[in-house]
Recover the amino acids of this structure.
């Protein structure tokens, strides 16, 4: 909004000091991060106080974890703080005529609505299960389909070749047509279909992976902030033809807006972390976790870095795999031996370490350190070929 306002005033002949700064990605990115952090910091306290007065607190199921019951009654649905800060900053600083901005705004609102409905059912209808898994997956699938169709059909998004960035090869590119079993015009349609399925899968996986990680104070928030900052850096590099050429990665015009949106997102997460760090004053709930995962997945798709997510989002991946392995092995052994057996003391993975007696704050800090190492590895891979 500020960008368009300055541009409009300039065209009318009004020239005032500092107006040109809004045309610099670096300035707008810094402004977006600071604004969202300040909004989260100042609005967060008021929202938490409102949640406390309304007694919108977390109901805890006793799983025998240390310090678990002390969290009972802690305000939840705090993801609203993240969304308010992100949207407030993005609407002010980002270019609203960019398809990249519009898709990220859509994702934020869509995933936020899914998470809010889930939290609402849990808190106000006292149904711990919230929305059914089928309903959530169906709505996330619908978002993935909308994003996939827009990416594939919009003339404003540069997808003339269905390629994405991967490390360890000379060109740093993976062509989705290599996955198509067919050739000719039918093969082209098949390639587009495969690409759309990948987009949908990425959005579903990221959204639910973040949700599973949100089980300790500051764990999902801090880990996600690292991922978001890294995606912002990659979006910045992809939008600059010189940097993209130097790193031998795809040059994607317009993705500077993704970098600015990620800067606003990082600021919102860090502002929320002020209240969410151990011992947490507020939990994000599904309102926050589903939104975070959705935005991460969509932004990675828009900058053609989705195949780097298994490394960058390694924490989310391991948390998800621990749940899949635990459930799969339990069902298998129960069917085979009549009694279910476990691979981990408890899933998701962070609870396994908690069961081993490691303090929660130490687990969270160590996961952050691993997340930083994965982020550095992801950026370093852009030069490995």
């Amino acid at each position: 909004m500020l960008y368009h306002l300055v541009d409009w005033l300039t065209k009318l002949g009004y020239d005032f000091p500092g107006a040109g700064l809004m045309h610099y990605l670096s300035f707008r990115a810094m402004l977006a991060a600071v604004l969202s952090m300040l909004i989260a910091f100042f609005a967060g306290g008021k929202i938490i106080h409102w949640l406390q007065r309304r007694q919108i607190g977390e109901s805890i199921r006793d799983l025998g974890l240390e310090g678990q019951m002390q969290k009972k009654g802690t305000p939840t649905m705090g993801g609203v703080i993240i969304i308010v800060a992100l949207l407030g900053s993005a609407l002010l600083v980002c270019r609203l005529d960019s398809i990249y901005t519009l898709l990220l705004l859509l994702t934020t609102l869509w995933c936020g609505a899914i998470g809010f409905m889930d939290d609402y059912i849990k808190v106000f209808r006292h149904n711990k299960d919230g929305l059914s898994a089928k309903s959530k997956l169906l709505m996330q699938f619908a978002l993935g389909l909308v994003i996939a169709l827009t990416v594939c059909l919009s003339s404003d998004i540069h997808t003339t070749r269905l390629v994405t960035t991967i490390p360890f090869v000379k060109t740093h590119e993976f062509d989705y047509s290599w996955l198509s079993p067919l050739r000719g015009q039918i093969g082209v349609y098949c390639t587009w279909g495969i690409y759309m399925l990948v987009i949908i899968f990425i959005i579903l996986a990221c959204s639910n992976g973040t949700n599973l990680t949100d089980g300790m104070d500051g764990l999902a928030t801090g880990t996600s902030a690292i991922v978001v900052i890294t995606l912002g850096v990659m979006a910045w590099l992809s939008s600059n033809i010189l940097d993209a050429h130097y790193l031998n990665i795809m040059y994607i015009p317009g993705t500077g807006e993704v970098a600015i949106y990620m800067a606003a997102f990082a600021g919102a997460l860090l502002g929320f972390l002020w209240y969410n760090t151990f011992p947490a004053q507020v939990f994000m709930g599904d309102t926050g976790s589903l939104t975070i995962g959705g935005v991460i997945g969509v932004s990675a798709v828009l900058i053609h870095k989705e195949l780097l997510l298994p490394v960058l989002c390694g924490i989310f991946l391991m948390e998800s795999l621990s749940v899949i392995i635990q459930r799969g092995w339990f069902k298998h052994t129960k069917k085979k031996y009549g009694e279910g057996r476990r691979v981990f003391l408890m899933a998701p993975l962070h609870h396994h370490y908690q069961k081993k007696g490691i303090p929660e704050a130490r687990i969270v800090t160590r996961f952050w350190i691993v997340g930083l190492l994965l982020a550095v590895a992801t950026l370093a891979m852009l030069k490995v070929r």
User: Anything to note?
Assistant: The CA atoms of residues 212 and 319 lie 7 Å apart. The mean pLDDT is 89. DSSP finds 14 helices and two strands in the chain.
